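Quick illustration, no need to memorize.
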Amino acid sequence: MRSMTKTMKKIVVMKIKSDVVVIGAGAAGMMAAGHAAKRGLDVILIERNDRPGRKLMITGKGRCNLTNDCSLNEFMENVPWGGKFLYGAFSRFEPREVMAFFEELGVPLKVERGRRVFPQSDKAVNIVDALKNFTVKSGCRMVHGRVKSLMIKDSVVSGVKLENGDTIEARAVIVCTGGKSYSQTGSTGDGYDFARQAGHTVMPLRPSLIPVETVEEWPRDLQGLSLRNVTLELREAKRSKVLYNELGEMLFTHFGVTGPLVLSASAHMRDIKAIENAGYHIHIDLKPALSIEQLDKRLQRDLLKYANRDFINSLGELLPAKLIPVFASLSGIAPQTKANQITKEQRLSVANLLKNLKLTVKSLRPIEEAVVTSGGVKLSEINPSTMESKLVSGLYFAGEVIDADAFTGGYNLQIAFCTGHSAGMSVLGE
């Protein structure tokens, strides 16, 4: 992708003026800046990185799961916090409209399992380039720099001050700085400082959609092993309450587990004390298509087929090779036990282990590794119809910086796009 510096204008004077300043050229920022500029406003988009959309480039493993082709009700079900606040923004720029927007910009899309939407090219760069071109063609000016603080007087925003000492005077400022996850992409939490400067409450920050560390150490022996078409169930230990249950893919690491299923499950772990006290358990069904009875019959056939082999060498048709030694150890059956010596009780124990491989959550990984930051600018202090601050006139917030987040599957980028759209279409409106 071409460097952003080719289309940026370096600030060479101490003061410049504009109608609107947008801080952050991510998903929400470019969407807000482009729509505001299309309305005829003089818009300056400030980005601290040398190119826009750094975090967008790595979403969906570099493929960019830009939205989810869902209904309003389905969207609400997948937003554990902030759904009611987002109702209007989503309704004004729902997934089908987001999809049409990108296809009109020349990016063909496709819908995959779980209604996840991706560019047909499987390249996030196409989404980033489309947004960048949209902002430039709309008349938005891009500036490379880092905002140090807002300019506020008598509860009215009047512009921003940059780290290099320059100032940009503006009638409105839209903060789209992202959260605090993946700090290497520029999401270092600057937006929360701006919000506090304006008198806003910033709700406690915590990681969401993040890998999980486990109490058990055996996952490190499986590092790099990916399991597909397994079911992961998250339970609250005290009440055995099921918080999440889904079929999909996961991955073992040196610290525990990660992958789509684990990231989604982590969004349900909102009780910090429960995490600290091993209050969440992960249950993995390695054979979700088979019942216990069906598995028992399958085991009987395999054990008969390999009657003279050691138990550990009779599992090759049931499990990945890397998982077999760990699984055999967890079963409690001596590895050298001959297959024809396995008792009915042992066989049923193996079947139950295949249906319920248990892990205990020790902790979540650091927030810097999270896909999404949960927490942020308090929603009750923002107008849900316009994204404008209720405390400072002319100040707007959009995207991950606000206290709203969703499960994995394109919902979080949908939040970024629809709140950015709302801010861009509302800023300095009548």
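Confidence is low (pLDDT under 50) at residues 1-5.
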